[in-house]
Design brief:
The complex is a heterodimer of chains A (280) and B (338).
Chain A lengths: L1 H13 L5 E7 L6 E6 L2 H4 L23 E5 L1 H12 L8 E6 L5 E2 L2 E2 L16 E3 L14 H7 L3 H12 L7 H4 L25 H15 L8 H5 L6 H16 L29
Parallel strand pairs in A: 1-3, 3-4, 4-7
Antiparallel strand pairs in A: 1-2, 5-6
Chain B lengths: L3 E4 H14 L1 E8 L2 E7 L24 E10 L2 E6 L7 E6 L1 H15 L5 H9 E6 L26 E5 L3 E6 L2 H9 L5 E2 L3 H14 L9 H7 L5 H6 L7 H4 L7 E8 L2 E8 L19 H20 L9 H5 L6 H9 L2
Parallel strand pairs in B: 2-6, 6-7, 7-8
Antiparallel strand pairs in B: 1-9, 1-10, 2-3, 4-5, 4-12, 8-9, 11-12
Bound molecules: iron/sulfur cluster (SF4) (5 copies).
Chain lengths: 280, 338
């Protein structure tokens, strides 16, 4: 697979179809692969593909200049779909080197998302590396942790989130690593007006996470990068899964599936269906 | 100031005794990580296990520290100074790298403007460090001449686990005062060979190393080098590496108002953020590579120029916590060999 991947990446660069190919190289810490940027065929020799290739490289396509080739797993492609739907890049400006992926690991353990993967073969791609892998219905409940929180009493739930989010140091690794958090100016960074004071405390932390969760509703594709990036081990997946579940139930919309679909957050067409709910 | 021994049981007694009158901070296991916390009993402390997630600096330079509070009424403003309780404090079980970071912070907080909030806490605190029992894959403290898993830099006492007891090395008068005040718990030192053995073992466990030779000379001249763009490319501009770094010390002071009352709070800030220094009007580093460059050059050149030492102690937190595996040791290697 890796030879095929390298060959295709080199072809793209030597034929000048792209200016850069974003892939993975061996990391230096634990079982880790690290993002890698190849501008020449020679750079491509650094590339690896293995269980450690967990990072969602789609974060870099909104930052890159020129035409970009990107190595993308099925889940990463979901976020590329989202980015294109939201007009942040043009489909023509990105060459998706999709990878048939049967799972990645974080610190030697299968990543949570891979237990529920429905995109072992990416939804869209320009080049596919590896043989197509069929996705089977998962026997596990994707919303198990969400249900556990939902089953708490409001007081217990409030306490749970207060305690959990009070650990947050507002380093914003979760935001920075998120391919859909591409805003030039995030609401937490504005100073006039300042929506959230800079002080780290339960209230401010809670505000940050609640607003971010709303901003991600119908947009988060569940790559799990925020939770992986969080140095304080805050289970951010639960928040995003809850929003995904709500949006699925209320609007029948699942992000990252159909590039032509209108995301629930952009869909204000109440005229056609007067009973339809607005997301905001 | 002769070395001593203290049995494990007596150390617990010491901690319990101290906690009655003064504030004792120690690594405590919270969920799946260790954090410095105020403890009331020796039962809460974890002297083995991983290094703390947040560095020791937070005990002196908290992430959000109230400097003053105020009330407004019509055109009058009443200012209320924040009162420190003035209590003596002890840290037990700090890692030698974290302790070594304190003299680095002392320079910045005490150089021209004397930062009373920081310096007062420093003055009141005795640091009892411990030779590392566990070493992480990310640790590279031994790359710096004066730091190791058993170095004394920044500590007042250094404990080394030699089985039934801790071997106690006295570094400063402050450390000695703890022994003087609890002399019944300390015994005459013996088993120095066992201590030396444990310390040597700990040092040998540190496998990561970076050659700093030639780095400063490179940084003196490579500000405009295209290498910065290349090595920083994957950096996402979060603050995991700077907030969790024991020597990073940037802050932003903001007033936070609620109706007619408010407080002036000092918060950790990071040069990695796009809006860093925007508040006073201007962010001179508009691109991520410039911000990344600032972090490296500050630690390994600007600070060295000013205070004649490096502002990194090799704790490895920036490596361990970076979501894209930015490895400062590899960055340094690339710069040196460029
Ligand atoms: S979710 Fe699917 S595509 Fe994504 S890493 Fe896991 S197995 Fe691969
Ligand atoms: S990564 Fe974690 S600690 Fe940092 S801002 Fe996000 S939730 Fe908070
Ligand atoms: S932790 Fe990593 S990604 Fe975040 S600012 Fe530091 S080097 Fe960049
Ligand atoms: S730069 Fe990294 S290794 Fe050095 S002291 Fe800071 S966090 Fe530790
Ligand atoms: S590296 Fe950045 S955050 Fe750390 S002390 Fe220097 S300027 Fe401040």
């Amino acid at each position: 697979m890796i030879e095929d991947l390298k060959e295709k990446a080199k072809e793209l660069l030597t034929s000048k179809k792209v200016d850069v190919v974003i892939g993975y190289e061996a990391g230096t810490y634990k079982d880790y692969a690290s993002p890698s940027f190849a501008k020449t065929a020679k750079d491509v020799d650094r590339f690896v593909w293995n269980k450690n290739c967990v990072n969602n490289l789609a974060i870099y396509i909104t930052k890159a200049k020129g035409k970009v080739g990107i190595i993308a797993k099925g889940c990463d492609v979901k976020s590329i779909i989202g980015i294109i739907q939201e007009n942040q890049i043009n489909r023509e400006d990105v060459v998706i080197i999709g990878i048939a992926c049967d799972g990645v690991e974080i610190d030697g353990e299968k990543a949570d998302k891979c237990n529920f993967c429905d995109v072992h073969t990416p939804k869209i791609y320009d080049i596919l590396i590896g043989d197509k892998i069929e996705s089977k219905e998962s026997s596990q409940d994707k919303y198990k942790e969400v249900a556990e929180i939902e089953n708490k009493s409001p007081e217990e739930r409030w306490k749970y989130w207060k305690d959990t989010l009070s650990k947050c140091i507002r380093c914003y690794a979760c935001r920075q690593v998120c391919p859909l958090c591409y805003c030039d100016k995030c609401f937490v960074d504005t100073t006039v007006p300042q929506w959230i004071p800079m002080s780290v405390n339960e209230d401010n932390n809670m505000m940050f996470h609640m607003i971010r969760a709303y901003h991600m509703a119908s947009r988060c594709i569940g790559c799990g990068e925020c939770q992986r990036a969080c140095p304080m081990n805050i289970p951010l997946n639960i928040l995003s899964k809850k929003m995904t579940k709500e949006v699925e139930e209320m609007f029948g919309y699942t992000p990252g599936v159909d590039i032509e679909a209108k995301p629930a957050i952009q869909d204000f067409n109440k005229k056609e269906d007067p009973d339809k709910e607005f997301i905001m | 100031m002769a070395d001593k021994l203290i049995s494990k049981e007596d150390l617990n007694t010491l901690i319990d005794n101290l906690a009655k009158d003064i504030d004792v901070f120690a690594p405590v296991k919270k969920g799946d990580m260790y954090l410095y916390s105020k403890i009331s009993s020796s039962k809460d402390i974890s002297l083995n296990g991983k290094n703390t997630k947040k560095p020791l600096k937070e005990v002196f330079f908290g992430q959000s520290e109230e400097l003053i509070s105020f009330k407004t009424a019509k055109k009058e403003i009443e200012i209320i100074e924040s009162e420190e309780d003035g209590k003596k404090r002890v840290i037990i079980g700090s890692r030698p790298c974290d302790a070594a970071a304190l003299p680095i912070l002392d320079e910045v907080f005490g150089w021209d403007y004397k930062d009373s909030f920081y310096l007062d806490k420093r003055e009141r605190t005795t640091i009892i460090s411990i030779t590392c029992n566990e070493v992480e894959e990310s640790c590279f403290c031994t790359s710096f001449g004066n730091i190791s898993p058993s170095s004394k830099e920044g500590s007042d006492l250094l404990l080394t686990d030699i089985g039934e007891s801790f071997y106690v090395e006295v570094v400063t008068d402050k450390g000695d005062a703890i022994i003087e005040g609890n002399s019944n718990l300390f015994k005459k030192a013996e088993n120095i060979s066992q201590k030396d053995k444990r310390q040597k073992e700990a040092v040998e466990k540190v496998k990561r190393r970076v050659e700093l030779e030639g780095l400063k000379e490179k940084l003196d001249i490579n500000f405009e080098d295209p290498i910065w763009k290349e090595i920083s490319q994957k950096c996402l501009g979060c603050a995991a590496c700077t907030y969790l770094c024991p020597t990073c010390h940037c802050f932003d002071i903001q007033d936070e108002m609620k109706k007619s009352t408010g407080k002036r709070v000092r918060n950790w800030d990071s040069c990695a953020f796009g809006h860093f220094t925007q508040m006073p009007g201007h962010q001179p580093r508009t691109e991520q590579f410039q911000r990344f460059r600032q972090r490296v050059i500050h630690k390994f050149k600007y600070y060295v120029d000013k205070f004649n030492k490096t502002a990194c102690v090799g704790c490895g937190r920036c490596i361990e916590n970076c979501p894209v595996n930015m490895d400062i040791t590899k960055v340094i290697e690339k710069i040196v060999s460029s």
